[in-house]
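Appendix B, Record 12. Input sequence as logged:
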Amino acid sequence: MGSKLKNLGLISFGVVAGVAASLQYSALAQKINALPLPLEKLSEFSEVFGMIKSEYVEPVEDEKLLDEAINGMVNALDPHSAYLDKKSFKELREGTEGKFVGLGIEVGMEDGYVKVVSPIEDSPASRAGIQPSDLITRIDGVPIKGLSIDDAVKKMRGEPNSKITLTIARKTEDKPIVVTLTRELIKQHSVKGKLVEPGYAWIRISQFQEPTLDDMVKKISALYTQDPGLKGLVLDLRNDPGGVLPGAIGVSAAFLPKDVAVVSTNGQVEDSKRTYFAKKEFYAERGVGDPLAKLPAAIKNIPMVVLINTGSASASEIVAGALQDYRRATIIGTQSYGKGSVQTVHQITDDTAIKLTTARYYTPLGRAIQAKGIQPDLRVEETANGDGFNALRSREADLVKHLSNDREAEPETAIVDELEEEKRLIELAKKSAPLEFGSKDDFQLKQALNHLKGLPVKVTPLKTASLEPVNAAPPAVKNKGGHSKK
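Logged structural output:
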């Protein structure tokens, strides 16, 4: 790969067991300026290094010590910055293609454990019954609490057909669950859809990958062939942890007016201050043409609902935020995760890299999503009684050392008896199976269809302080330029 991958842009929420999150190959260029180094601290580092080499109980290789020093320095910044060793970097590059060897689990961190965001359909994880919000506490019998998420995921990776045993804590079970899985090649199809009833279509994007935009165009075109008189579309981004930025821009552009701003970024260096528009140069591969040209023209005006929940993060929040700002779609569900930062991958050697948080991203109206998320226009929980598994999930703002929101104060949570509330939610969860998105029992989807038909929607009353609804006018259409001036 060499210098071709010297700088890679990345937007991600969790990582996938077997692959890291997706890449944006049109990178934010980053020039490293020579800055004066603190000589006193460098001298202190040298002294500690020498002490370990000469006095530690057993010999330690120089390379290992320096790798761990870099790893510790980067990991201390925020939950999404990380040092990528040879294996991690290779898997990161491969992951954007939507196929990898692993277990098929999208994961995050909670209380020092690996938390399952979502198992990938038809993967070893889904077939073994692993569920969203499961906590992985042991890998092959070894406790993993205290490991970084990258280190924990490394332990879950391996060769095809190799076995791994996971110990899982599930809030609906009194005892740990032990499952043995066989790693395999996972081919993830990030888009699926169907006619849920005559005149109404459902499109689900589970993750933004390189093939996502083409796959969505094919799916929408097929649905219009089935029913040319479509009257409404539900775009389902629940539990979508993010992925490649061009995919998010392309999906937004499919439904927005031509050339409007979709998302902007702002960071410390000049090249991180950018605005991305609904133009093919921002979402299509060079020399390939415009994949959106194949869409039926009616897609620009079809009434829309976007479904989100706490598992909707990063690239999915870009799409929801853009469609909300332009009032192109009604956002229904629960507040999103709040992962509004951009990670850039800087290649250090041929085999290693640094994944570094370099910018925050903003909706067309200038709202910062980081640690706050997208507030739905209509708050609807997963179940008719206003509860569900979503209520048990953590958000970006719950992570230790999370990057702050630089434009608005993070919402305060109402004072509640957390223990009693969790007990109540666990008891409720015991009575119901995990939700299958798009099924006949999907309560949020039913409410989305009701909204498209002009029927009443069962809105969930807020129990905590939240964001104000979006009442500002949509931003003016911008046809020129590609950079914001800040």
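Residues 39-55 form the longest helix (17 residues).
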